[in-house]
Amino acid sequence: MAELRLDCLGEACPVPLLKTQKKMEGMKVGDILVVEIDHSCAMKNVPEWARKEGHNVEIEEVDDGQWEIYIEKTK
Amino acid sequence: MALKNNVYYKKFLKEPWSYTAGAVVLAALNIGMFASTGKPWGVTSPFATWAAKIYQSMGGHPETWAYFKSAANAEALKNSIWLDLHSVSDIGIIFGALLATLLASQFKIKKIKSVRQVIAAILGGLLMGYGARIAFGCNIGALFSGVASMSLHGWVYMIFIFLGAWAGSKLLVKYFM
Amino acid sequence: MSEVVQKSIKTNSKSKKKVNQIPFGVVLLIGLIGFGFFMANQSPKSAVMWVFGVAAGFTLQRSRFCFTASMRDPVLTGSTSLTKAVIIAIATATVGFASIQYGAVIKGAEKIPGNISPVGIHVAIGAFMFGIGMVIAGGCASGTLMRVGEGFTMQMLSIVFFIIGSLWGAKDFGWWTNTFISKTKPVFLPNLIGWAPALLIQFGLLLALYILADWYGNRKSE
After folding, report:
1. Domain boundary residue, one of B66, B92, B108
2. Which residue windows are transmembrane per the record (chain A) (predicted)?
3. Can you state the percent helix, strand and coil of chain A, rounding each to 5?
4. Cβ-Cβ contacts under 8 Å, C78 against chain B
C-alpha cells in the first residue's frame, strides 16, 4: 500500500494525464498515486480518465488554482 | 463566507461544467454572433491585423501585401481595433476566462517550467499563425464556423487538422515531454 | 461531479490558507460591464461582440472546452469526450447557421452569409500545420486566449509567436493566392447538391462521427 507522488506542476495538457497513465501502469492494486497539478483542464481530464478506468478518485484544491488528485488503483 | 458553500455557486462558478453544456452554450453564442453581426465567430484574423499594425508602427508596409488588399482586411488594418468585431471578441475571451477563474477563486500565474516549453510555445505559435492564414481560419473560424456554414473547406479542414494533431502528438511525446 | 468515495483515500491534507479571489472577480465583472456601455456609445456592434466574447471566454474556461484536445486526445490518451462535445457544438450551430443562410437566400441575398472560403490544397496544408502547432503549444487560438486569461505564461509566449506567424502567413498570402488559391473556389454544399441533401449529409456525417468517437472512446478503456 505505497503512496506515490507525481509532480505535474507547470505541465500543460496532455502531459499530466500521459504521465499519470504511465505511472499507474507500474503500480500495484491498492497503491495510491497523488498527482499534483495546476493546469485547470487536467483537474477535469485526469479524474475523468481514472474514474472511467474504475479507480477511486478524490480531488482536493490545495491552493488557488492548484490541485492534488488522489487515485487509488483498484485493478 | 456563506457564498462559497452555496450549492449554486459551486454548481455554476466553482466546479467545471460538463463538456456538453459548454458545447451547447458555445453553439448558441456563435449563432448569436452570426445573427447579430452577419459574421460567424472567428479568432485568428485579428492576429494578422494586430501584427500588421505593429509592423506599420515600426516602419513596415504590410498594406502593400496582397493579403491586406482585400476589402475586409484593408478596412480592419485602417480602423481602430475596437471597430474590428473579432478583435473585440478576442480581447473579450481573455477577460471572460479571467473572470471565470477569479470567480472560482482559482487564479494563479503559471510559470514556464522548462526550455522545452519555451521551444514548444514558439514553434507551435508560429505554425498556428502561418497555418491559420493559408487555411482561412482556425478551429473556430474554419472548423466550428466553417463546417456549421456547410462549407466544403470546413470539412477538408477537419480531416487535415486531425492528421496534423496526430503528427503533433507523435512529436510531443518524442521531443516535448 | 461526484466526489463521493465510501472511504476517503486522502492522507495528510496540506491545504493552504487560500486568498478569496471572488471580490476581484466581482470588481472585474463591474469593469467589463462598464467598458461594454462605454463601447456601446462608440460602436453598438462592437459592444455586442464584447458581450459575446466575454461570454465565450467564460464558457470555454468553465467547461474546460478545448478544440485541441478534441483532436489530440483520441490519439494520445484514448479519450473522446471532447471530440463528441465538438461534434455536438457543430451540429447545434448548424441548425442556427442554416436557418440564417436559408433566410438570406429566400430574401434574395447574392452572397450567402457564413464562413465559406475557397477549398483546395492550401486548406489541407494550413490545417495540418495548425494541427501540429496546437498540440505542441498546448492550445489552439481560442484555447490560447483563454489560457492567457487564466495566467499561463507559456501561452502568453505562444500568442506572441502566433501573432508573428500570422504576419508571416499574411506576407506569403500573395504567393499562396497566385500558386493555389486563385485556381480554387468556395464550395457551399447546398449550392452543390441542394438544401435537403446537404443537410442530410451534414447531420448524417456528424452523427456517424459521433458514433465512431463514442465507440472508440469505450473501446480504449477496455
Report:
1. B108
2. none
3. 30, 35, 35
4. none
